[in-house]
Amino acid sequence: MTDRRFWRANARIGHDSLEGQLTDRPLVPGVTRRIRVPVADLCASPGGKRDKQLLFGQAFVLLEERNGWAFGFDPADGYVGYLRGDVLHDAPEPTHRVTARSTHIYTLDDIKSPDRLQLSCFSELAVVDETEEFAELTTGGFVPAQHLARLSWQAEDPVAVAEAFLGTPYLWGGNSTLGIDCSGLVQFAFHAAGRSCPRDSDLQAKLWDDAGDDLRRGDLVFWKGHVALMLNATQMIHANAHHMAVAVEPFEEARTRIAKKEFGEILRIARP
């Protein structure tokens, strides 16, 4: 059965990777555009529910624009959907990414100058010039140099990345420091460490080996529709609707509460 989250076609058009599978509509290679707003919702249908989000500067392979909506996919994880057409633009290839929890684009290389945008961690930027204090963007504006790293930068520990999100508001389908959900937090943490990870917990649960009886830092605990990261043998971190935030909890206390009120019993514990 085709998973619509990764099916690169709608009723009118498809991606050329589907050659041999689709013969009743045009197949196109698509064109890469980049996100021009701090956070953009990728929806299951035009005006439909949010599946995930893309951040400023990240790529989107555009297959079709129609009635103000852009259909295509995120090349980073293959997720297919619809963005509002006005969140996309042509932009240079990024050279840097934001590694601070968040930052601002300033009008001038002066922290007292007006700020244009607030950006989430992992937004991608094309830098044309750098000083010790600021990076100048090809699209205009300046970002504090301390908040950026080269695009090749990778975090050493996915769990430490998740910990940096502590207190971030819970948002279904969220993928930023403005709001994030359980599987978004896990994907963000592993992508920051240069490791492949799908967006949704049902897909994440199919990866990696089972953990042993001794819980360790970095183990992933899966319920039906929920996932948490172990900080150590007794504590876990997760984005959750109980706290409406990314929170740290004692594992056994959270396990008991979740079993009673939310997602039932644990399905699997994996060790990436």
Layout of strands and helices, then pairs:
Elements: E1 14-15, E2 27-28, E3 31-35, E4 39-43, E5 50-55, E6 59-66, E7 69-73, E8 80-84, E9 88-89, E10 96-98, E11 102-106, E12 115-120, E13 124-125, E14 127-130, E15 134-137, E16 142-144, E17 148-150, H1 158-163, E18 175-176, E19 179-180, H2 182-192, H3 201-204, E20 209-210, E21 220-223, E22 226-230, E23 235-240, E24 245-250, H4 251-261, E25 268-271
Parallel strand pairs: 1-2
Antiparallel strand pairs: 3-6, 3-9, 4-5, 6-7, 7-8, 10-13, 10-17, 11-12, 14-15, 15-16, 18-19, 20-25, 21-22, 21-25, 22-23, 23-24
From the structure above, extract its key features:
25 strands, mainly beta, SH3 type barrels, 6-stranded antiparallel beta sheet, 272 residues, 3 domains, 5-stranded antiparallel beta sheet, 4 helices, endopeptidase fold (from Nostoc punctiforme), 12% helix
Question: Can you put this structure into words, describing what you see?
Answer:
- With 272 residues, this protein is mainly beta.
- It folds into three domains: 14-89, SH3 Domains (SH3 type barrels), CATH 2.30.30.40; 96-150, Roll (SH3 type barrels), CATH 2.30.30; 158-271, endopeptidase domain like (from Nostoc punctiforme) (endopeptidase fold (from Nostoc punctiforme)), CATH 3.90.1720.
- 12% of the residues lie in helices and 37% in strands.
- It contains four helices and 25 strands.
- The strands form eight sheets. Strands 20-25-21-22-23-24 form a six-stranded antiparallel sheet. Strands 8-7-6-3-9 form a five-stranded antiparallel sheet, with no helix packed on it. Strands 13-10-17 form a three-stranded antiparallel sheet, with no helix packed on it.
- The longest helix has 11 residues, at 182-192.
- The chain starts with 13 loop residues before the first strand and ends with a strand.
